[in-house]
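Submission sheet (multi-component)
Chains listed below:
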Amino acid sequence: MTMSKKKKTILVADDNVGIVASLTMALEYGGYGVVSIMEGEEVKKIKAPFPDLILLDIWMPGVSGLEICKYLKTKPDTKHIPIIMISAYPDASASALEAGANGFMEKPYTIEDILNTVGNLVN
Amino acid sequence: MINEAIRTKSNFELEHRVRRPDGSFGWTFSRAVPVFTTQGEIMEWFGAASDITDRKELEQKKEEFIGIASHEIKTPITTIKMFAELLQKKLSGSEKKENAVILKHIVTQSDRLTTLVGDLLSFSQMQAGKFLINKKEFDLNRLVERTAHAMQEITPQRTIGKEGVIKHHIVGDESRIEQVVINLLTNAIKYSPVKKKIIVRVGESGGKAVVSIQDFGVGIKKEDHKTIFERFYRGKERSNLAKSEKAEGFGLGLFIAAQIIEKHEGEILVESVLGQGSTFTFTLPLRQLKNRTRSNL
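Outcome: structure written.
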């Protein structure tokens, strides 16, 4: 019996329309399903079915990406979801990892950077 | 600091934070000049202190602004670059070759803008004393190889050769050292004719990891060798390049490179002959090297 390979879903959480649109297109190009959220508080409320990975901006309106990351990593039903944090500040990587992120990407990144980093964590 | 001024019998200058009688804080600049006896001993100090609070606040605001502006600019650059790359991928194999050329220009210029913004951000962090170095063990040899290869891909009309090997891993900030290599390679590309080769040499010598980048371009006047690592340096001979190759940038690349190497307790130096080319070399001290060799050797 063969099983059809389920498309992995990535949640893009960023308040910038351009970033959300470009990441969505890049991830779809890489064969992923994409959902997006542009409000920080909304990311904390995600429910099953959970995404296979979250790409999370460090600066979200209302609540910081670091706080969201810490929150999701302490909740029993979301702590397993890999989170990659994104920032224009290279120095933010240490804070991201401290908050429990599984990876960090500095802006600007390339499509290869995104697909390689996401691929390594979801597969 | 005052002890050092007494010891060396030299002028004393200090910017320091002060608490005013009303409890608020401000900044003061103090300057003192020693007055000597006929025997050459310090008799007294003559000095003054000025309130520089306004200037310090303005400096801080300026640094914060540059930091925030650089950060904000990076987001649209990321978007432009991503969309251009996506179009490149979707149009690859298209018969309209000019589309690929146009997109390549967009990506190249986005990369250029990224470097400029990165330099500005690094500079503002340095000025604010917030330029962080996160040291970890990494493979310097691989970093140089990877960076030279990436620069070769960006400029396929150039020949960038690599010679030698660094056998040990080093301890340092990989992304900052990468910034140094990119800056030096960018200069070599910028200030030498397309037909001339660029050579990247690596090795270990006298207990140090050594990386040098040689070009055969316009070169630098001897009198400028001392000032080339200062901020905003732009040598006069560099503006003698053809109009299409005219020097670009803020004049911060070498300053930032020198600051990064200094923070790693290394050295950076230039050897250059006007009209013949330049070799920029940086070293990292052996005491930062761990007793671990490259796994593939």
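Remark: The beta strands of chain A are 9-13, 33-37, 53-57, 83-87, 103-106.
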